[in-house]
Amino acid sequence: xxxxxxxxxxxxxxxxxxxxxxxxxxxxxxxxxxxxxxxxxxxxxxxxxxxxxxxxxxxxxxxxxxxxxxxxxxxxxxxxxxxxxxxxxxxxxxxxxxxxxxxxxxxxxxxxxxxxxxxxxxxxxxxxxxxxxxxxxxxxxxxxxxxxxxxxxxxxxxxxxxxxxxxxxxxxxxxxxxxxxxxxxxxxxxxxxxxxxxxxxxxxxxxxxxxxxxxxxxxxxxxxxxxxxxxxxxxxxxxxxxxxxxxxxxxxxxxxxxxxxxxxxxxxxxxxxxxxxxxxxxxxxxxxxxxxxxxxxxxxxxxxxxxxxxxxxxxxxxxxxx
Length: 322
What we know:
With 322 residues, this protein is of the alpha/beta class. The protein is 38% helix and 16% strand. The protein is built from eleven helices and twelve strands. The strands form three sheets. It has an eight-stranded parallel β-sheet. The chain has a two-stranded antiparallel sheet with strand order 1-2. α4 packs across α5 (153-162) and α5 (153-162) runs parallel beside α6 (183-190). The longest helix is centred in the C-terminal third of the chain and has 21 residues, at 228-248. The radius of gyration is 18 Å and the shape is globular. The relative contact order is 0.15.
């Protein structure tokens, strides 16, 4: 698969977002091991999880699925969001970050993390102290590279002034282009790679039947882009993407991912799926090249998507002008 650089970390253009393996998108029908091995067979070696996904369960099932893998893999996880029986909250207290990291390593069955993100900035502490605690983990050999997730441009600059930051993770897709206004230019100015989560618009861009039914997912059910009026309007944009895909002999998801990867060679997409066939399909997008006419068509389609977004403790949820 085509390789990209996230700071000093070389990784394939497409990774696997693992949250949906155990949280947020309804009951799993496929085994985690089957999904992970399908990803590896397709050339995907970057697996992205977090301590908050399933209250640590996601890291545990990913670790178990990777336990019999001999080939080199890259594991990214995150700290800063705590999910437990009391609900969900922020906690990136500098004095607790090492303990959270060590717990993640135990669940994953690994000696080090290839990429460790500050999942959200905890407003109770200066970002410099949170990044400083992460940098201590690099010095201790527990972490190879650092990242931040859903930060503002100013927070990214402050993070980079504290320690080397390899990647910034953000929601970015044809259906949500807000990061291009500020955080994408800031990351490029600073030499930070871009990792796009929900690159298929939480399923909206694939045209899959389940994406038309918000009740199938806790994340879609509360997302304004999936409200009745917005979903009707957005479905028309998805139909146009499907027509373009049919012309190219590809799938709508592949076209949406190829558009995103074409935004720059510093972009890595981490679509999530539990279905081996969909994982293989997504991986194939890395080999799809879109000509200028198709890129222009897709950019026009992107302008027609409507609806704000819902996500926990993010910097920006509203579209420009909304």
